[in-house]
Structures are given as structure tokens and as C-alpha cells.
Write a structure and sequence with these properties.
The complex is a heterodimer of chains A (749) and B (87).
Chain A: H1 18-23, E1 38-44, E2 50-56, H2 58-61, E3 66-71, E4 82-84, E5 89-91, H3 92-99, E6 104-105, E7 111-117, H4 120-127, E8 131-136, H5 143-146, E9 159-162, E10 165-170, E11 173-181, H6 184-190, E12 193-201, E13 213-218, E14 224-228, H7 233-244, E15 251-255, H8 271-281, E16 285-288, H9 291-297, E17 304-312, E18 318-330, H10 337-343, E19 353-361, H11 375-392, H12 397-403, H13 423-432, H14 434-437, E20 445-454, E21 461-467, E22 473-477, H15 485-497, E23 504-508, H16 525-552, E24 560-562, E25 565-568, E26 571-574, H17 575-579, E27 590-595, E28 603-613, E29 620-630, H18 637-656, E30 687-692, H19 714-726, H20 737-748
Parallel strand pairs in A: 1-16, 9-11, 14-15, 18-19, 22-23, 29-30
Antiparallel strand pairs in A: 1-7, 2-6, 2-8, 3-7, 4-5, 9-10, 11-19, 12-17, 13-14, 13-16, 17-18, 20-28, 21-22, 21-27, 24-25, 25-26, 28-29
Chain B: E1 3-5, E2 19-21, H1 27-37, H2 41-45, E3 46-47, E4 50-51, E5 55-59, E6 62-63, E7 77-82
Parallel strand pairs in B: 1-7
Antiparallel strand pairs in B: 1-2, 3-4, 5-6, 5-7
Classes of the chains: A alpha+beta (749), B alpha+beta (87).
Chain lengths: 749, 87
């Protein structure tokens, strides 16, 4: 625990958005209704890879009820440049091409045209009248096959980059990452035990229930108004403006409530289409994705191939690690291997490291972040090898990890030296938890552990606080609320102002109504926007002290503020008493906070899991699951626990059930929630949580951010548990019943 | 003196040297001074008066949001890394 005497921080108030969410009054993207609103439908490629020879929209355009049809010809095609689309930089031409295919369809589901009509059924029917002449091309679907010299080329102009620099290497590799520490050959020479294994994971989806939905009005004054389901109002504004070649100030984005995102609602898909259709028909246009499009045409997270070699001395010290990793990026080279390369060895202090990572384009949907993007696949590989090393050395898996654990001063694989981190504290909490020492009896049962890391970003945030005459405050902020962050931000303001959380009224504003605020992602919102709220609250206090000084005819420096009360000598006023006298002392008090902090220190998470394997069917049942995470200071412990439980549940699904199934031609075979096997309440046991609090030293309250690291350990922990249950190590996700049975049978042979 | 860690793709420009001690109070000054000793580094790191779009700088273990303007202490460690964010 942080040990600081907070009044608000660390309590569990009711969420500010709770009443609207549980009564169904909250407005999500598809709830938007505007006068004269038309409905859009997107025509998508039936081929994973095909040249587009001709598009004839004339029959659709003349269909009764149709208001507009757009194709890539309606998109601007100015000079290309690199743009930062939050998940990484990408040529603007690629961002446009993902919105509407121009010369080639690059994956099944790639948007080819869009129709607006009086109602969605007419729009869908008219889309079927658009004639597209395709020349099918051989697709490349596997990450290793795509790296071959003779593989079909997804993007003809693609050349490999290294640290942003284009190389001469043409092909399907978008980027090569290399991290080096020490001398890996020397490290392996010192090792007495070496384990080298290969791992595969497949594409999975974030699995949010609310589909993408965007409503656009291209107003007669030239401004574009958007109402959309997004993780970042400002990032959606920038991306839409860039794609449409507009100044960013010409686009206003109103972020709606979000029904799940997990990284999948950062990129824009429908917003530019709805805007183009609106410009053509002069009416607002709404497009909502059917579930099939959510799977086939948004950004799932990549499948991977990872090879890990690790060596250790007999005393349990890891001497060297070598990693070769290749991640699918889908159709465009903005991938997640760089994230995976940072995270894969992050929990350990390893003196000699060599990591080579490759982002590789394939004919699949362009990948997008998914909760600690790239790290879960990486940890599945590394934590399985760490577990095997511990076993070979005859050491307890947590003690082995503790012996090698990263701590302050340890150098991460990319060379950065950790400041204060909580890796050791998380491992100690796992070791000391009753779950780890509890007996686990019965056949085909096993217990596994694993660690995970996510680095947590900083970035810019804005917040404005105005004081109401009744002593409450309104807090306007720019961070889209994905998980109760309105409340965690409001609580930080309340702590400073001496108010109760319910006396702070938080509002998530549109892009015209608050200063720029970066995306809700990277576990940054409670960290950075909370910091902006802290700053705005202090600005309020500074101004309120001046007002008190005016009333008391003393110098402002003679006024103190503590616990919601202003004091000077023997005089005092509560915050509410002074708020009631603002008009006569100079008018409204409005505080502002604007921050742009560097990255947080990162969060470590661990999982302890018990499983039972049915040797007849291969089904794995999770019997017990404990999630441990360093949150820094936990602002709202219930919200932190919710993040840990949500991430763990998603990790269980990723481990055991979820996968994109592909036809040989590159068509997704299970693009519905009936066939895409997300975990249900029957698959997930009650998840126990342990919040470790190692405060982040640079944040005013010690916040680290907790949204992501918790999804990282579960697949590896479950794989390690399955090994202890049945004696076989699975090195492919998902560890579905057929895969488990095959592993059992191969062991028996 | 601050220590700059040269990323592997750029070590060809520094004769294979992985770390270099260099004077400077900001990232911009470090790069200017580095480029005088090891020509070509500036071009690989800077575009116009900013870091190149794919590149971020980390000072003392934290990814900076200030780029070339970030202050550097006398004993700081400086790394140039690929731009990354999160989900």
C-alpha cells in the first residue's frame, strides 16, 4: 500500500455513469438520431486478394431510395506522407486505402464502395447492384510464408523499414526490430541448461459487443460533424481530417459511450465513409457494422510465430535469451511486433539478449491493438520457456522468476533502464497468496503461473474544472470513458478539492469543447488525464485562495487549504461557503489542467491458474484463477479489480477458445458470435484479485495504469498448468480440445 | 556527461560503438554534437526540426513527449527507439 492518508483515493464510490448504463439511457454510437438521417451500407470484397478492374455504380445510384454512392474515386489522392495514427506511423495512402480499396482488395471484407439510402435495407439492397470486376490473385495468409522471397506481394511498393528508415528489401516485411544487450553467444556459453522452442498463435478479435457505428453530417458551411464510437475523439478527428484532406478544425467529433473497445476502436473505418456520403446527399448519414463486418473488416490482433532460446546456470540465473519473432500485420505494415519485442523478456534481468522482430503483411484485415498489443503472444512463448527452464533446474517456478526478476535499474531488452517498478512485489504476492500453496488434488489437474508486462504510455490530456455556487464542481475532460475513467479522474480532482466524488460532475466533451486529449489507450487515462485533473484542481484552489484573501483582506499566501476548508489565522470557510461568494469576489472560478507527461513506469501482472484436463475430450476447465497486478496507487480499487478480471477473462478466451478460422482462399469461416468462441460465464471461474501498489514516482498520486498487463499472463499460465496436469506442453494458441487431444496422442505415441 | 545509446540499425554510422558520451543539455544538442563526430546520425534521427516520425527518444528510462526539446541531465541515459503506443 502507498500509505498516504487519502480521503477519496482508494475508496469505492458509485460510478458517475452507473445510473445511465444500468437503466439503458446511455447513448452509444448507434443510438444517434438526427433529423433527415440516412443510412449507409458498405460493399466489401469477397476475395482476400484481387485486382479491382472496374466498378460500375450506375444501377445502385438509380435504385429508388438511394441517395449517394461513393468509391475510392471520391477520396482525396494528394501527396503521400507519414501520419501517426496512434498505433504507429503509416503512409496516409495506406490509411485511405483501408477505408476504401482503390486498385486492389487486400483482404476479404475490404471496403470497396458505400451506399446511402433512406433506410438501411434499401442501402444494402442497392449495394448488391454495384458491379465490381475482380481479378482474383493468390493470397498469402501465413506469416512465415509471407516472408519468403517468392510469396505473393500484398503491397507492391512495400519495402522493409528499420528504425523508420526504408531499406532496399522489398517484399512483405514492413519493419524489422532488433534489440541487443551484452553478448548472447557468450551468455549461452555460460549456461548449463538451454531450452529452445517454437510457438504459434493465431489471429483473435478484441470481442467487444458494441459494433462500430458512425454518424456524419457534412454541413453546408463545410464543417464535418461526427458522432462515433471511438477510444479517442481527437485521434478520430485527426484521422478523419487527414483521410479527407481537411484541416482538423473542420471536423468536430462527439464521442459516444463505448460498449467495449480494448484497442479495437482507435482506428477510423466508417467515419470517412459516412462523411463522404453525407457530402454527396446533403443529409446526415449513419453506418453501423453488422457483426460479420466487425470481424472481417476492423482490426483484430495478429497471429504470430515466435522462437525463444533461453539459457541458465545451475544456480538459477538466466544468462542469455535469444528471440526471433514474426507478427502478422494484416494488409498494412502498422504492426505490433515492436510492442512484443519490448515486452517479451521485460520481467527479467538478463544480461545477454538478442531479439529480432518482424512485422509482416498478409491478406488479412489490418491488425489493431488488443489490450497490451503484442505482449500476450510474446509472453505465451517466453513464459513457457521460463517455466521449462525452472523445471529442468528443479526450481519452483516463482522462486526461479524471483531470482531473475527485473527491478529498479534493470535494463529492458530495448536498453531502457527501469525506474521504480513492482515486478518483484507482484511475484512475492503470487508466492505468498493462499492459492499458490493450496493443495490441488485429483487426476489431470495442474497449476501454472506466468508473468506479463505492459509499459503504459503518458501523452497529452486536458481538463477544465468550474466551480458551482453550491460548492460542487463540473469537470470537463477529453478522455473517452471506457471503464469508469470519468470516476477515477473525478476522484483525483475530489481528493485535491476536499470534495466527495459525487460532488464532482465529470463530462466527456466533444473536440470543440475541451483541449486536445490523446486516445484512451495504453493504460494512460487515469494516469495522464487524472494528472490534468489534479493540475486543474490545484488551479481552482489557487484562485479560491485569492478570493478568500480578498474577503479576509489578507495576502493570498496567508490562506491555507486543507480537507476542504480555507483558513487564515482564526478565520475559516468551507469550499462550499466560499463557492457561494464567487460572484462578489470577481466572478466564476475556472481551473485548467493541460499535461503531456512522459511514459509511466509500466505495470507487471501475474497469474496463478488451476486447470483440469479431460483426457477423453481434450477440454480444459479452469478451476481457479488469481490475478495479481501492480497498479501503482489504486484510485478506485473496484475499477482496478474489474480491469484485472476483464483482462483475465479475455486471456482465458485467447488461451482456450478464440481464433479466426480461415478457408484456404482467405475467407474467415466463423465471423459470428455463434461460431467465434468467446468465453462465457460457464468458462470463467470467479477471478481472485490482488492489487499490488508500488506508486509510480513521477505521478502526483502514484498512478501507473492498469488496463492492459492483466491480459498478458493467462495463456502462458494456462499452458504451464496444462503441462502439470497431463505432462505435455502446448505451443499453439488456442489450446482448444482438438489441440490438447493431438498433444496427448503424440505423447502416447 | 550524458550517455547516448546508439540503436543497432545506426551502429554502422558509429563504427560499431553502442554507447557514446556526448555534451549537451537537450536532445537536440546531443544530436548536433553527435553528428559532428559521426556524420549521418542527424539525418537518420531528425526531419526538419523534429525527430523523424517513426522515432521516439527516451531519457532516463522514460519515453519523452518533448522530442528534441527534452532536457538532458549530466548523467542521463538517452535511447532512440521505435514509436509505440498501446491499446
Amino acid at each position: 500500500m502507498s500509505g498516504k492518508p487519502y480521503r477519496v483515493i482508494g475508496t469505492r464510490p458509485v460510478r458517475h455513469d452507473g445510473a445511465d448504463k444500468v437503466t439503458g439511457r446511455a447513448q452509444f454510437g448507434a443510438d444517434v438520431r438526427l433529423p433527415g438521417m440516412a443510412y449507409g451500407y458498405v460493399l466489401r470484397s469477397p476475395y482476400a486478394h484481387a485486382r479491382i478492374r472496374r466498378i460500375d455504380t450506375s444501377r445502385a445510384e438509380s435504385y429508388p431510395g438511394v441517395l449517394a454512392v461513393v468509391t475510392a474515386a471520391d477520396l482525396p489522392s494528394g501527396p503521400d506522407r507519414l501520419v501517426d495514427l496512434v498505433e504507429g506511423t503509416l503512409p496516409l495512402s495506406y490509411a485511405r486505402t483501408n477505408v476504401l480499396a482503390r486498385d486492389k482488395a487486400l483482404y476479404k471484407g475490404h471496403a470497396v464502395a458505400a451506399v446511402a439510402a433512406d433506410n438501411p435495407h434499401v442501402a444494402e439492397e442497392a449495394a448488391g447492384l454495384i458491379e465490381v470486376e475482380y481479378e482474383p490473385l493468390p493470397p498469402v495468409l501465413d506469416v512465415l510464408e509471407a516472408m519468403r522471397e517468392d510469396a505473393p506481394r500484398v503491397l507492391e511498393d512495400l519495402r522493409m523499414r528499420q528504425l523508420g528508415e526504408l531499406t532496399d528489401k522489398a517484399g512483405n516485411i514492413g519493419e524489422h526490430f532488433r534489440h541487443v544487450l551484452g553478448d548472447v553467444e557468450k551468455g549461452f556459453a555460460e549456461a548449463e541448461v538451454i531450452v529452445e522452442r517454437e510457438f504459434r498463435t493465431v489471429m483473435v478479435h478484441q470481442g467487444y459487443l458494441e459494433p462500430q457505428s458512425a454518424t456524419a453530417l457534412w454541413n453546408q458551411d463545410g464543417r464535418v460533424y461526427l458522432w462515433t464510437t471511438t477510444q479517442g475523439a481527437f485521434s478520430a478527428r485527426e484521422a478523419t481530417a487527414w483521410i479527407l484532406d481537411l484541416p482538423v478544425s473542420q471536423v468536430r467529433v462527439t464521442p459516444m459511450e463505448v460498449g467495449g473497445a480494448f484497442g479495437g476502436k482507435i482506428r477510423v473505418y466508417l467515419e470517412p465513409l459516412a462523411a463522404l456520403l453525407s457530402r454527396k446527399c446533403g443529409r446526415p448519414v449513419q453506418i453501423t457494422m453488422p457483426r460479420r463486418d466487425v470481424f472481417e473488416a476492423t482490426g483484430p490482433t495478429p497471429g504470430t510465430y515466435i522462437r525463444v532460446k533461453m539459457g541458465a546456470r545451475a544456480d538459477g540465473r538466466i544468462t542469455a535469451a535469444q528471440v526471433w519473432m514474426a507478427y502478422e500485420t494484416g494488409a498494412f505494415p502498422s504492426g505490433q511486433c515492436g510492442f512484443g519485442a519490448i515486452c517479451i523478456l521485460a520481467p527479467y534481468d538478463i544480461p545477454n539478449v538478442l531479439i529480432d522482430g518482424y512485422d509482416v503483411v498478409v491478406n488479412k484485415p489490418s491488425t489493431a491493438p488488443y489490450r497490451a498489443p503484442g505482449a500476450t503472444q510474446a509472453a505465451f512463448a517466453a513464459e513457457s520457456v521460463v517455466d521449462e527452464l525452472a523445471e529442468r533446474l528443479g526450481m519452483d517456478p516463482i522462486e526461479f522468476r524471483l531470482k531473475n526478476a527485473a527491478r529498479e535499474g534493470t535494463r529492458r531488452a530495448d536498453g531502457l533502464k527501469y525506474q521504480r517498478i513492482g515486478c518483484v512485489e507482484v511475484l512475492e504476492a503470487m508466492r505468498d497468496h493462499p492459492h499458490y500453496g493450496a493443495p490441488l488434488e485429483g487426476p489431470n489437474r495442474g497449476r501454472g503461473v506466468a508473468m506479463g508486462y505492459w509499459f503504459n504510455i503518458g501523452w497529452y490530456s486536458s481538463c477544465v474544472i468550474s466551480v458551482n455556487p453550491d460548492g460542487t464542481v463540473n469537470l470537463v475532460e477529453g478522455s473517452v470513458d471506457l471503464s469508469g475513467t470519468r470516476t477515477t479522474i473525478a476522484m483525483q480532482a475530489a481528493e485535491v478539492l476536499g470534495l466527495r466524488p459525487e460532488q464532482v460532475h465529470p463530462i466527456v466533451a466533444d473536440t470543440d469543447s475541451i483541449g486536445p486529449t490523446a486516445v484512451t489507450g495504453g493504460s494512460r487515462t487515469t494516469y495522464a488525464t487524472g494528472w490534468a485533473a489534479w493540475e486543474a484542481a490545484h488551479d481552482v484552489i489557487r484562485q479560491m485562495k485569492q478570493r478568500a484573501a480578498l474577503l479576509w483582506e489578507v495576502d493570498p499566501e496567508a490562506v491555507s487549504f486543507d480537507g476542504g476548508v480555507f483558513r487564515s489565522g482564526d478565520r475559516s470557510m468551507t469550499f462550499a461557503e466560499l463557492a457561494e461568494r464567487l460572484e462578489e469576489t470577481g466572478g466564476p472560478v475556472v481551473g485548467r489542467g493541460a499535461v503531456n507527461p512522459s511514459s509511466a513506469g509500466g505495470s507487471f501482472a501475474g497469474a496463478i491458474v488451476d486447470v483440469e484436463v479431460d483426457p477423453e475430450t481434450g477440454k480444459v476447465t479452469v478451476l481457479r484463477f488469481t490475478s495479481v497486478q501492480d497498479a501503482g496507487t489504486a484510485i478506485h480499487p473496484t475499477a482496478v479489480e474489474g480491469q484485472m478480471q476483464g483482462g483475465s477473462a479475455q486471456g482465458i478466451g485467447w488461451a482456450l477458445h478464440e481464433e479466426y478460422s480461415w478457408s484456404p482462399e482467405g475467407a474467415m469461416l466463423n465471423s459470428s458470435l455463434l461460431d467465434y468462441r468467446e468465453p462465457t460465464a460457464l468458462d470463467v471461474p470467479p477471478i481472485e484479485t490482488v492489487i499490488v501498489e508500488v506508486p509510480e514516482p513521477q505521478h502526483p498520486f502514484g498512478v501507473r495504469g492498469v488496463g492492459e498487463a492483466n491480459i498478458v499472463p493467462p495463456p502462458a499460465a494456462i499452458a504451464n498448468a496444462i503441462y502439470r496436469a497431463i505432462g505435455v506442453r502446448l505451443r499453439l494458441l488456442p489450446m482448444k480440445p482438438s489441440a490438447v487431444l493431438e498433444a496427448i496422442w503424440s505423447k502416447e505415441v | 556527461m550524458p550517455v547516448v545509446f546508439i540503436p543497432p540499425p545506426l551502429q554502422g554510422l558509429t563504427g560499431g560503438r553502442i554507447t557514446l558520451e556526448v555534451e549537451g543539455a537537450t536532445v537536440r544538442e546531443l544530436i548536433e554534437n553527435l553528428d559532428r563526430a559521426w556524420p549521418g546520425l542527424r539525418e537518420r534521427l531528425v526531419e526538419g526540426d523534429r525527430l523523424r516520425p517513426h522515432i521516439r527518444v527516451a531519457v532516463d528510462g522514460r519515453i519523452s513527449t518533448m522530442g528534441l526539446l527534452e532536457r538532458v541531465g549530466a548523467t542521463s541515459e538517452v535511447h532512440f527507439v521505435a514509436a509505440v503506443s498501446g491499446g
